[in-house]
Every structure is written in C-alpha cells, then in structure tokens.
Design goal:
- By secondary structure, this protein is α+β, with helices and mostly antiparallel strands.
- It has helices at 9-21, 71-83, 85-91, 119-126, 134-149, 157-166, 168-179, 188-198, 204-215, 230-243, 249-255, 292-305, 337-346, 361-372, 392-407, 421-431, 444-456, 481-488, 572-581, 583-611; strands at residues 45-50, 55-59, 65-66, 201-202, 260-262, 267-272, 276-281, 320-325, 350-359, 379-390, 411-415, 439-441, 492-496, 501-503, 512-518, 521-528, 531-538, 543-544, 558-561, 565-571.
- The protein has 20 helices and 20 strands.
- Helix 1 runs antiparallel to helix 12, helix 4 (119-126) packs across helix 7 (168-179) and helix 15 packs across helix 16.
- It is elongated.
Length: 613
C-alpha cells in the first residue's frame, strides 16, 4: 500500500461492514475447552486477500487465536498430497453429515467417518499425513500449515494442554476408529497430533492468506511457494463447500455461496476460487459453533460484492487490455513547444487504462489498485469503449477511487462510458449521492486533452491574438527580420464563424496555408460514412495546410472552426515567388516543416506502440 493517507474503496467498505456488525453482541465464547474462554469476546477482524497477494484488513486482524477446526481443511489437503486422493477416500468419505462438529458420524458398515470436517474425520485424516512416526507426522502438519500461511506458525501450549485435559470424547472417537481399522495403530499419538493442530496460533490475516492460497490454485500469493498441487485444490474446496460449516453448511452455501471452514476459536475462512479469500475473526459463537459476527459479515460481503461462487466467473487479470501514459501518447490537441516540454516532464502523472469485457469486483479492485498505489498518478482516463457490463460493486469501487485522485489534486475521467447504456446506468447509480458529478467524455482523446489542460494550467491557453506574430508560428521560426517582413507583406486575413468548414477533405487544394491568430479548429477525418474522428485540434500560433509546400494537390482532411476563427493566409505560389529572391527563407521553412512532421510521426508512433500493448 502507498504511504500517503488514503483509504482504498475496498478498505472503506470493509470498515463500514466492521462497524455495522461490531455492534452485534449475540453468542458466547467457547468454554468447553477452558483456555478458549479466556479470549476477548470483543475482538473482531475482517480480511480480504486477492490471488495476487493484496491484503485488505480492518479491525483486530493481528490478534492471534487458535485455528481449531479450520485446520481440518488444510490437513485434509495435506493428507491427500501425501497418500493420494483415492487412498484417503477409502478411509474418510466426503458426505455431509448434517450434524455437529463433534458428532460420531461413522458409516454403519465400514466405520469410516462421513467427511473430514467433523472431528472423527479430522482425527482419521491426521493419521494419514505422511511421516514414519507421530513426531514426523506432526512436523509435516505444522510445516504444511505454515506454508499455507506464508510464515512459521506455533502452537498455543496452554490451549493444547486444555484440549488434552478435556478431550475424552475425541479419544473415544480415536479408539472407535481403531476398532474399525480406519486407524491401524495406537490412536493416542494421532489424537494428540489432532489436539496440537487445533491449537496452532494464527491471526485473521493468516487465515486470509491461507484461503487465498487455495483460491490461487495452491500457490501462496505472497511467498510464491506452492502449498498444494493444483489438482487437489478442487477436492479440498468441494469438501469445504458441502461440509465446512457443519449443520449450517446448506444455509451457508445458499446465502454466502463460498467454500468455507469455521472454527470454535472464532475464525472463518471463505474462498472464491481464482479470485479472493475472505477471513473473519470474532470469538462469540452461535449454537452451531460458528462466529456470529463472522457469519453476518460474510453474508453481507458476499451479497454486496457479488462473490457467490455460482455467479459467472470473471478473469480479473484480463480486464485491463492496455495501459499507457500521456508521454507514450498525448491527445490530438496540438500544443506549443513550451506546452509539449511541460507534458514531457509531467505526462506520467496522466494514465490511460483501456478496459474490456465484464468488470466484476476483482477486476475493479485491480483497476483501482493500479491507479491508487502509484502516487505519481494524479489524473486517469478509463476507456470504457470495450466494456460489456459492470457490476454495481465494481462500479462503487471505481467511482470511489475518484476521491483519492481528487485528494491528489487530480481526477478520474471516463471515456465512452455512455456508449453502453447498461454501463452508463450502473456508473450513474454508483455515483448517486456519494460523489460529485463524474467526468464523462465521448472518447479517450477528449478526456486526455482535459487532463493535459489540468496539468498545464495557464500554459494550456493559447497566446492572445494581439501578440500573435510570425515569431509565434513554429513553421516560420528562425527567419531573419528581412525575411519576416517580406513574408508578412504577402499574408492576408480570413475570418470564419464557429461551426463553419474552412477546408473539406477531397477538395482540390487551393494552395492556401493557414496561420491561426485567434480561435480553435479541429482537423477531422471520416473513417465511416456519417462518423467523424478528430486527428488534431489546433489553436493560436499553429498552422494547417502546410503540406501544399511539398506539392500536395488534394485536401486529405476537413478543418472545422470550433470557435470564431481568424487566420492569416499565405499562398504557396507567393511563397515560391518570394523564394526566388530570398532562397534562404524557403530552406528554413522546409527545415521547420520537417521538424514538425517528425514530431507528429513521433506522436503517431507512440500511440501505435501504446495501442499495440
């Protein structure tokens, strides 16, 4: 995260959720294990972790607590990695029990636990982890959990002792499993390992990273270390989906729609494959052993952010099709040399992002993060031309990003947003009552020009007409006094009203070169019948029609008067006549023209390179 004081829209949202559900006082801390009853019931943290390692955290996310039953999902994954999926399935089934976490749910014939998320299945799973001795199995368990979390984890020895002192039911389950041959050796050390895995200390951030590792195909998004082979991620998440919330699993999937696992320590981790993980921590539990605040927060987050896994999947990494700065490709507003120099120095503060496809929350998060985490960016243009639709949660995040850019003295602009009525409607609703009016432009070129004008400030304005002499025109720079005087005598004035056409594409060239002394004109082409595209906007001190000097016989573009325009006009034939007596004059003008054309070519190449990304 950048060092400046700003709140990312996702963090702001999580803070609102934290404040809203922090007021809940229902439920009670687990006390059937005495040490668990000593935690602060008011602790409450929420974490959201993306598959590329961005962590959004609010509340008590660094406070440690014991992982408890959440460990079952990750130890089950570890057992499959060590023994193979089929070998584990022979010992532990994957059918929902619909019963409490400590129920003795065994198959009536085989004695196999119905799934690995109840205590019976978790104890059996702990015995299937690789290792020739119980000590080696424990080392494998703690190493695996640490890899998922991205840091070395430790055991709360006091809780572990308390687990052992009160774990008579779990010991009985262990001996029942031994009776059916599910556990083939003395179950006592296996049950002790189970107590230890439940007593591992984590914080809410750890849980979020562990969940994001599953969401990321088994690779920890912060460390880059593989914790689980990709082909085992699906089976792990499947069991979390059907069995992870015990006898609340059906309601959870209906309302939240995410594979999840809870623990009586107060934690919940939920996973949206390929996109996010959400973790919560709050010790007050309901009658089913799930965190009251955690469930309420997860319900709201899933609903508000559109995270239900049955929703169509989106690929967040593809939402930005290309990105470039004002230095790579400037607008089609032709600038003075001084303005071009300013933009060359400051142009990286303007960023253009061309978006595409359907934008969901994770895509919007990446867009927002890309803009806000780079403190050099003050102005941004989001080109929405190829966006098919945008969800309301995504629109809120994007619109919310305007606040940060405005704090930097900049702005977030939207181009082509109203090409698609659905996109326009959602953006409008997302902004309603939350932010000042959005900056909307018909195309990226106009939006970029507006941003450039903000960067240039007073330098964006053309020189006043009264001060416009031949010295102000780059085409006629470096002439001596006699040459300027002779050339000035050949010029005559022409005036054009706003909205009029000065020259038209396809017309035979009348050999006139126009020097703008007041007003703005746009150079337009018609790529398709009835559609115009701006190639350039010219203002005071600039010229058009100069290609006649090189013998061009037909007008290649239409020049439109955007405002009332005054020009001084030079005929190419007059210039040729003057060159017979002052040949140096035409040499200088041709050299200036070559410089201007080189600048235009450089700009065109920059645009092509940016669009080819």
């Amino acid at each position: 995260m950048p060092s400046s004081d700003f709140v990312h829209p996702l963090n702001a949202y999580l803070k609102r959720i934290h404040h809203q559900f922090g007021a809940l006082k229902e439920g009670a801390v687990a006390d059937y294990i005495p040490e668990l009853g000593k935690v602060d019931p008011e602790d409450f943290g929420i974490v959201l972790v993306t598959t590329d390692g961005e962590v959004y955290a609010v509340g008590d996310t660094e406070n440690e607590f014991t992982i408890q039953s959440i460990s079952k999902a990750f130890v089950y994954a570890t057992a499959m990695a060590d023994c193979g999926r089929d070998a584990v399935l022979k010992k532990v089934y994957v059918e929902p029990s619909g019963e409490a976490f400590n129920s003795i749910s065994l198959h009536p014939v085989t004695g196999a636990p119905l799934n690995p998320m109840i205590n019976a299945g978790a104890i059996a799973t702990a015995g299937l982890v690789g290792g020739s001795t119980p000590q080696a199995q424990w080392q494998r368990i703690i190493d695996s959990l640490s890899t998922f979390a991205g840091r070395p984890l430790d055991v709360d020895e006091a809780v572990c002792q308390s687990e052992g002192d009160t774990g008579f039911r779990n010991r009985a389950i262990g001996w029942m499993l031994r009776n059916f041959g599910i556990i083939e050796t003395d179950p006592t050390p296996i049950v002790e390992n189970y107590f230890r895995q439940c007593s591992v200390l984590v914080n809410c951030r750890d849980l979020g990273i562990m969940g994001a590792t599953l969401a990321n195909g088994g690779i920890n998004p912060l460390t880059g270390q593989r914790a689980l082979h990709q082909h085992l991620v699906g089976p792990t998440l499947s069991v979390m989906s059907t069995c992870g919330m015990y006898d609340y699993a059906g309601s959870w999937m209906f309302e939240v729609g995410l594979p999840a696992k809870s623990g009586v320590g107060g934690g919940i981790v939920a996973v949206l494959p390929g996109r996010f993980a959400v973790a919560t921590f709050s010790p007050r539990l309901d009658a089913k052993g799930n965190s009251v605040r955690g469930i309420a927060a997860c319900k709201a987050i899933s609903h508000d952010l559109g995270l239900h896994m049955m929703s169509p999947p989106r690929n967040a990494s593809e939402v930005i099709s290309r990105e470039y700065s004002c230095i790579d490709a400037s607008s089609n507003r032709v600038r003075s040399a001084a303005a071009r120099q300013t933009l060359a120095a400051k142009g990286r503060s303007i960023r253009i992002l061309a978006l595409q496809g359907d934008i969901e929350l994770d895509g919007a998060e990446r867009i927002s993060r890309r803009l806000l985490n780079d403190e050099t960016i003050t102005h941004a243009v989001l080109d929405m031309q190829r966006v098919a639709l945008i969800s309301m949660p995504a629109a809120r995040v994007i619109v919310g990003s305007t606040l940060v850019l405005r704090q930097r003295g900049g702005e977030l602009c939207f181009a082509h947003a109203y090409d698609n009525g659905l996109v326009a409607d959602v953006l409008g609703k997302a902004a309603d009552g939350q932010r000042p009016e959005l900056k909307l432009f018909p195309d990226a070129d106009r939006a970029l020009e507006w941003c450039e004008n903000r960067i240039l400030g007073a330098d964006a304005a053309p020189a006043p007409a009264a001060q416009t002499t031949l010295d102000h025109f780059e085409l006629f720079a470096n002439l001596n006094a006699d040459e300027r005087e002779a050339l000035d005598a050949m010029l005559h004035e022409s005036v054009h009203r706003a909205g009029s056409t000065i020259v038209k594409a396809g017309d035979e060239n009348d050999e006139r070169i126009f020097l703008i002394t007041e007003g703005d004109v746009s150079v337009l082409v018609e790529p398709r019948p009835g559609q115009t595209q701006r190639l350039a906007t010219l203002s005071t001190g600039m010229t058009f029609g100069e290609m006649v000097i090189l013998g061009q016989r037909m007008r290649t573009a239409t020049v439109h008067a955007d405002t009332n325009v005054t020009c001084r006009v030079l005929k190419a034939s007059d210039l040729d006549q003057l060159a017979t007596t002052q040949p140096h004059l035409k040499i200088v003008i041709l050299n200036n023209l070559a410089t201007l054309l080189a600048e235009k070519l450089k700009q065109a190449n920059g645009l092509v390179a940016a669009l080819a990304q």
